[in-house]
């Protein structure tokens, strides 16, 4: 009796049919690992499937997805290319490659792939949505909105598409349209903290501060460590004049994000408004440490130092601001005032000259330069500047008062009284009672001398 060979009963391990079946097992295992978040393990299984079945398009596609999840965009792209070579009519392969290109900021290439996915599958809602994201990346917000709208037509309950369309409308300053879209996104997905946050931002721009606060509060409830939501709620409270409430929110923002320069800066501004100038300076200083190239913070710190009488410190801050932002007229003007307070009249006039050069219709700069000219003995030049300030801003009471005072010293008592009476009238209309009363006393003094 002869023995029977095993290969006549069982197919050898290398046989094509067995390889295909084993490849399918590896695909199944890889998919399970992918779902569990074990992307490296998934890649190993998909690679094993490919080694057993080199034309296994699904394995290349799934391996590409796992690589993409790990941030290996180039590796993912190579796998998607192979998937498309093996299955050129597969819309999902183009969609996946389009996503990889979008993630690598090749927006034009992404759009081309999404176009092909849509051509092969005209009702492919996700491809429209992601083509919209690629158009967003190119700044084509109208084109993006058109794609998001088509996504919504195909998939009316897609909260993400409403959210994305709301973002694009916000960029185009269609804030009411954005609010409508964020509202629909929230209706479909009530626990979306970012949708509440973005709707709050749109409401803030429209000065619906109470509505914004409600949205930021909901964003915080859903995500209690959301530093930006605390910060932006603080800004909305600022808008309502609730500076103490704003300070509380800014404090929470920096607690959750200690390097949040904007929160320190805005807390400093709120403290400044409340008269806590030392506290404001401390916050501005912390903001500057975190963001040393932000010109506005130096400017605000300079204003706070000036109020506290630290003229040298104010000048240093205004100078730093000017170095970073040399075309801002107001900084030269405030630096000029601080120099004048230190008796540096020529330096002050130089700064006012620059402020006026940058902003020829700046009445306050003319008024301040006029005052410094007066202090330095140039009374005629002072009157000329006060007159220009009045021409530019006919309700500038201080300019009338200053011009009247100088006219009095030059012996033009009637001209002085006329200017001072106009100044008193404007001070009264503007509710400035202290200068109003002082101007009345000066008028009485001049009239008594006649």
Largest sheet: none
Q: Beta-strand percentage?
A: under 5%
Number of strands: 0
Overall helicity: over 70%
Low-pLDDT ranges: 1-16
Along the chain, the helix and strand elements come as HHHHHHHHHHHHHHHHHHHHHHHHH
Distance between the termini: 150 Å
- C-alpha geometry: elongated
Number of helices: 25
The name of the CATH superfamily of one domain reads Tetratricopeptide repeat domain
CATH topology of one domain: Serine Threonine Protein Phosphatase 5, Tetratricopeptide repeat
| Average pLDDT level | 94
Kindly name the structural category: mainly alpha
- What is the radius of gyration? 35 Å
Classified by CATH, the class of one domain is Mainly Alpha
CATH architecture label name of one domain = Alpha Horseshoe
